[in-house]
Amino acid sequence: MLRSTYFHEADSGIGFSMFNDPAAVKSASDFQHAAYRVGYTFNWLYVDADDTAYFNSGANPVRTAGTDSNFPIRAEQQYEWRGWNPDTNMADYTPFEQRPQGINQDYYTSWNNKQAPKFRAADDQYGYGPLYRNKPLDDRSEAGIAGDNKMSKVELVQAMEDAGTVDLRGDNILPLALQVIGDAPTGDTAVDAAVAKLKAWVASGAHRITRNDPNVTKVYKYDEAEAVQLLDAWWPRWVKAEFAGLGDPLYGALTNVLAIDDRAGHVGSKFQYGWYGYASKDLRAVLGQPVSGGFPTPFCGGGDRSACRDLLISTLKQAAAVPAAEVYPADGDCAAGDQFCADQIIHQPIGGITQDKTQWVNRPTYQQVIEFPARRGDDIANLARGKTATATSTEGGYVAANAVDGNPDTRWASRWWHDPESITVDLGSARSIGRVVLDWEAAYGKDYTVQVSTDGTSWRTVKAVTGGDGGRDNLRFATTTAQHVRVTGTVRGINYGYSLYEFAVYSR
């Protein structure tokens, strides 16, 4: 087996050199062309103050006509990569224009998912289909920006956190199975009770979560533990019965290539591989819903909804009778039947550094949001630094000039117990401005306004803040022209006055 980057590992340095060269990368398009020079496969994301972009790099050789990546390929000359030279290990590669890429999409998600519609992954990757673990994140992103809506930084982090505890099967496939079963009694009280629990879990978001911190409550149990156990026991029985038409030999061969499930467990990063897309397509076809690239004939019940319903009820009845100890067998860290522990993430120690088990979350990395107010080449100088500042009052020698001196250890403070109070900076001349950054001391403004003026007499409000909580306030507003900028506090955050370490003004 020969990789296309063999003998060309250092070639990617060209792309990285371009990334770091301000003269080479000035735009989203420039960034994409730099990424194209990176030989290994990677999803590159770009953000500046105006644009976002994506590009999938990699020295992807063009296959010879007549070969099929779904099957083994003979190691013979007529099947080699197109244009391949064995002496230099060079070939014809997928051109720039045909790579997965985008500029200024509404949003991008990268959670090990397929890089773009109609594009393949590695030849041994069969898990990509209509349903993948990024779906809950996509759903929340699309809801947050629907219509004219925009997501705040806090809302974006909340979307990532919320998606991280979703059971992909419970969120996207279980509702289809419950729709096939319907609301009519099944004829078995145990199954009816199981259906009710599963419906309630779906309605609550199909999370594998303990919403109250178990380290505080000492209750190490999922909020909807019974429903979670039902699905964990049902899924393997349901899928095998649904696709029984394949026959045992073929079903066994296919599951050896792609396991039917990748549910929550000690590793943390889950729902990457499984028959999720297959089951979704099949049940949607049974329900008469549109299916892109569906099977020629539905498998569940041979396409008959009543027969499919019977199959699902039968396997759910089996699942309801499975004891927890069988669903969650003992391992070196957890007792048999301990569902919560079976899902917990177990960290690998580094030397003497250890970490206790943590509650399961899909891909348990930290979430962060980064905002770029400017782009390469923009003027990012603090226009207020060193300029003349005045205030309606001062306290204890903490004069207004301290807020514009560029020193984070000095500050302006107003007199105590009085509203309103204000601080004003004269930029020296009319400037184009679009952002103000305020670094508050403990005495912060809870409610305040940012106002601008060209003459120091007539003022316009460009930003109004209510319910502020101190710290750093990064305030953006429509670009305007002004020489004077004023912050007026109307409600203090604490009893004393208002106090700012820094009052910064930027063009954008």
Task: Work out the helix count.
Answer: 14
> Order of helices and strands, N to C?
HHEEEHHHHHHHHHHHHEEEEEEE
Structural class: alpha+beta
Main sheet makeup: 7 strands, antiparallel
The helix content is: 25-40%
Global geometry: globular
Strand proportion, as a percent range, falls in 15-25%
* Number of strand segments: 10
Low-confidence stretches: none
Mean pLDDT: 94
**Nearest-angstrom radius of gyration?**
30 Å
CA-CA gap between termini: 52 Å
Structure notes:
With 508 residues, the protein is of the alpha+beta class. The chain is built from 14 helices and ten strands. Strands 4, 5, 6, 7, 8, 9 and 10 form a seven-stranded antiparallel sheet that branches. The protein has a three-stranded antiparallel sheet with strand order 1-2-3, with helices on one face. The protein is globular.
